[in-house]
Design a protein that fits this description.
The complex is a heterodimer of chains A (572) and B (321). Chain A has 572 residues and is mainly beta. Chain A has five helices and 25 strands. Chain B has one helix at 2-16; strands spanning 25-26, 39-45, 49-51, 57-75, 81-91, 97-98, 113-120, 126-135, 142-145, 159-163, 176-181, 189-196, 205-211, 226-234, 238-246, 251-257, 264-269, 274-277, 289-298, 303-315. The chains are: A mainly beta (572), B mainly beta (321).
């Protein structure tokens, strides 16, 4: 049932805007309707002798996000997105929830400064403010990309930005001969509300100054501070402060129509203070990083090469860049508990790609837990602390966008050991290719292949030897069989084997122990989809997914997971 | 050219930075069993029956290489658990000697069979051996009450509870109090208080637990070196003030929140209590303590639960079952 006060508020809201729309044509509407329904089942050795856990179920939801934008003049506009949502699986069509999904006002001041207030998407660099991908997924089937987009929309994962509440403003100024352009970006957000007595407001404030001297030189200065507003509570039980100051640059001595050669990078420092009253403890740490390299772009063949070296200190802490978007050990919403409903099922590849319940939207104050099988070389993204070494990247694409190829590799090492003085050595190679055969053959219909792979290795010798590796393979085929009707195939394969000892940390980010991670596991996902497209962004799809999780050491925990998924998405 | 020069200088500055660490590595020391790891002598206990009133039990093993290990000892009847961790070539009485105590809020029991489970870091297998407890360990300290007839307050009827006037009566059906029989955590009874104060003007105050005067407890410890300990549990909405009263009128109190995930052990140094009545001079004198009271509060407009058991004073160190 809709709560009465919500209903009244919603009716007033629409009534007001409808009146406004009648008087003023500057009111416009936009929206997303999505309805998803899936029937899932879980089988295999894991479910044998299990009479209590759920083994089959239908789940679904529909929502309608109605956005209303009002623009009284060119310098100001405001919009609100109201979501009406119903859970199809509850069997009660009258049960509807209404929430405001997003409220934002934006505009320009004197045609120079752009500003946004309300729910804003904020991002800077990979070391300051960045929402990293949960796994290498740049070259995956359209089936998986679609599921990831659905989740990304629900979770506000847009362009590696964090969805926060506050305000931001930016401007670009022409400065004359000495400096071609000066860009300014500032933001101020609140990520936690005070409880009046002991838990203070927590704020994230920062910005960027970006100086483009010419096409040869660009220099940026980035700053993000995250802190507790101590005056907002009667007592102080925690006090968290973290500052990150970095400088990023591009220097391109050779920049002409045929070739660009230059250097780019970022370097910076972090300073962290954390006080916890009931432990009567204060910890202050600071550290630095640098990441710089040389790049070349041969424009005629659209071929790019980059080589870089990075050194990210073990105490470098940038919560807005290192917080994970996935809670690795959270309980999945589908078949969340197994073994007679007693044990939380560890999320697999498919869960991580499709389950909103696993996703995190809060900036943390410590390094979150992760599972090495999904990424061990840089689990906290580019800003992963305690890493140094070389990275290489090669990309090739053509102007017709027929072929796009990428290969990246990292050869990294710890800076200080964990649990032993010997250092872990990390290596990874990842890449893929997207080949639009239809375009090459001048087909009017879509015909494309995509394939991707990642190999990761972690090794350590000495008294605490480690040898852990993973292989991730992606494959996909999209065929437009009839006009606007696509047949899509997709597969993912992940194999992790060996032993790792990943760190357990306390709230001060200190390592307090290690988890003995011994694994020999294969995960295979096979999917097929029939998609009907109508309009540029709207579609309906019927897909079937089958996920196999095989633990080669403990075969009694093997299971497979099937899901029939129906999706209708209308975007206008 | 000057662009390249500027960058080389910047890179030079960055690369010349060198960190100095105070420690050789981060975190606790770790030694992982390699591929050729094996036992030179098997994992086993030094006796099959143990009287913890007079002796301890040692778990023994000899490894082919120094490894990180974890020994967990489970009671087959109680919920008591004891853990040891080590990094060594050998397990013996220097690193795996057990005095019968537990790490959680449960006691190992007389006649109970215990299982020792050894895990080696880097190995998925586990190794086991067992022993039977002939007599359990006698905890150190001055026991005030285990609510089962032991301690300074032996009569269960000496304990009583009281409620805020707005918590009692027919307006609140959530009130429960008194002794409850349960295996948690020390076999039989504990004291339970539950209520709300939704209708009262002070909708955070439920009531409390107290006892009749049985005279001073006779705690022979120094005031600066005495711990107050108890087992407790409840709801996240509950908090409580513990008040200790001396025969000379001095009173000191300590505020706690209550663990909601099961029984926990509270250990507080008396010097961490706040003196709120100094009529006896305001000096902590454990030998004069004669009362232990609990005042229970709840979050506004919620229901709170508070359970207490095994109230004991210890010297120099917190209590462990």
């Amino acid at each position: 049932m809709i709560e009465k006060k919500n209903l009244v508020f919603a009716v007033l809201f629409f009534f007001t805007f409808t009146l406004f729309a009648q008087d003023n044509q500057l009111v416009s509407y936009f929206g997303v309707f999505r309805s998803t329904l899936h029937n899932s089942n879980i089988n295999g050795n894991l479910m044998n002798n299990d009479s209590l856990s759920v083994k089959r179920g239908s789940y679904g939801r529909s929502f309608f996000d109605l956005g209303i934008k009002i623009q009284p003049d060119k310098s100001f506009k405001a919009h609100a997105i109201l979501r009406a949502e119903t859970n199809l699986a509850e069997g009660n069509p009258g049960r509807l929830a209404l929430i405001f999904r997003q409220i934002r006002a934006e505009g320009t001041i004197s045609k120079v400064v752009k500003y946004e207030v309300g729910d804003i998407d904020v991002g800077l660099t990979k070391y300051t403010l960045y929402n990293s991908e949960e796994i290498f997924s740049e070259f995956e089937s359209d089936i998986f990309r679609t599921r990831r987009n659905i989740l990304g929309y629900d979770n506000f994962n847009f362009e590696n930005k964090w969805r926060l509440q506050g305000l931001q403003a930016n401007t670009t100024l022409g400065m004359g001969n000495a400096i071609e352009k000066l860009g300014l970006h500032i933001f101020a957000t609140r990520i936690r509300r005070a409880d009046v007595t002991t838990i203070p407001d927590r704020l994230v404030v920062g910005g960027k100054v970006d100086i483009k001297q010419s096409k040869y030189i660009r220099l940026g200065v980035n700053y993000v501070t995250m802190f507790d507003n101590l005056g907002s509570t009667v007592d102080t039980v925690v006090d968290f402060k973290n500052n990150v100051l970095t400088s990023d640059f591009d220097i391109t001595p050779i920049a002409n129509n045929k070739l660009e050669v230059g250097l780019s990078g970022e370097t910076g420092i972090s300073d962290n203070h954390y006080y916890v009253q009931n432990q009567n403890r204060t910890v202050n740490v600071n550290d630095y990083f640098y990441d710089a390299g040389i790049f070349t772009w041969i424009k005629k063949i659209n071929f790019r090469v980059k080589a870089s070296y990075r050194n990210v200190g073990p105490d470098f802490f940038s919560p807005t860049a290192q917080t994970l978007r996935i809670m690795a050990n959270a309980e999945p919403s589908v078949f969340g508990k197994v073994m007679n409903d007693s044990i939380v099922r560890t999320p697999n590849l498919f869960d991580r790609m499709t389950d909103q319940q696993l996703y995190n939207q809060r900036i943390g104050t410590t390094l979150m837990a992760y599972l090495p099988i999904y990424g061990n070389v840089q689990p906290y993204g580019q800003a992963t602390p305690n890493r140094s070494g070389f990275s290489f990247e090669v990309t090739k694409s053509d102007s017709a966008d027929i072929l796009h190829v990428l290969v990246k590799s990292d050869f990294l090492s710890e800076i200080i050991g964990e649990g032993a003085s010997d250092l872990r050595k990390f290596s990874s190679v990842q890449g893929g290719a997207r080949f639009r055969l239809g375009r090459l053959l001048s087909f009017k219909k879509e015909l494309s292949f995509i394939t991707g792979a990642r190999y990761e290795s972690t090794k350590r010798s000495g008294v605490a030897p480690l040898d852990f590796s993973t292989i991730l393979i992606d494959g996909g085929l999209t065929v437009e069989a009839l006009k606007n009707i696509d047949v899509i195939l997709g597969t993912k394969y992940l194999w992790g084997t060996g032993n790792e000892a990943y760190a357990m940390r306390n709230e001060f980010k200190e390592i307090i122990g290690f988890t003995d991670y011994i694994i020999d596991m294969k995960q295979l996902l096979l999917s097929t989809s029939l998609r009907f497209r109508f309009g540029k962004y709207s579609y309906a799809s019927l897909e079937y997914n089958r996920m196999y999780v095989d633990n080669l050491r403990y075969t009694n925990t093997n299971y497979n997971f099937g899901q029939l998924f129906i999706n209708l998405s209308l975007i206008f | 050219m000057k662009h390249w020069l500027a960058l080389i200088i910047m890179a030079g500055i960055s690369f010349s930075c060198k960190r100095n660490f105070d420690e050789e590595f981060r975190g606790p020391e770790l030694a992982i069993a390699g591929k050729d790891f094996h036992f030179i002598s098997d994992f086993q206990t030094d006796k099959t029956n143990v009287n913890f009133e007079t002796e301890s039990l040692t778990f023994q093993a000899l490894f082919s290489a120094k490894v990180s290990w974890t020994l967990k000892i489970y009671g087959t009847q109680s919920k008591a658990v004891k853990s040891f961790t080590g990094i060594s070539l050998v397990m013996d009485n220097t690193n795996a000697s057990w005095d019968g105590g537990s790490d959680n809020a449960y006691f190992f029991l007389e006649g109970e069979k215990c299982i020792g489970e050894l895990s080696i870091f880097g190995r998925e297998e586990k190794w086991y051996d067992t022993a039977t407890i002939v007599k359990p360990r006698i905890p150190d300290g001055i026991l005030i009450s285990d609510f089962d007839g032991k301690g300074k307050i032996t009569n269960t009827w000496d304990w009583w509870d009281f409620f805020d006037e707005y918590t009692t009566g027919s307006r609140d059906e959530e009130i429960e109090s008194g002794y409850f029989s349960s295996p948690d955590p020390v076999q039989k009874k504990y004291y339970h208080l539950k209520g709300d104060d939704k209708l009262g003007p002070n909708n955070y105050y439920i009531g409390g637990i107290g006892h009749n005067n049985v005279g001073v407890f006779g705690i022979p410890y120094n005031g600066s070196d005495t711990y107050f300990n108890m087992m407790y549990r409840g709801s996240t909405t509950a908090s409580a003030f513990i008040t200790l009263t001396e025969s000379d009128g001095d009173k000191y109190e300590y505020k706690i929140t209550v663990p909601s995930t099961g029984w926990g052990i509270l250990s507080v140094k008396l010097t961490d209590f706040t003196m709120n009545n100094t009529s006896g001079g305001g000096i902590i004198e454990p030998g004069k303590i004669q009362k232990v009271d609990f005042l229970v509060l709840c979050e506004p407009l919620t229901i709170a639960e508070f359970d207490v058991d095994y109230i004991i004073f210890t010297e120099s160190k917190p209590f462990h079952p």
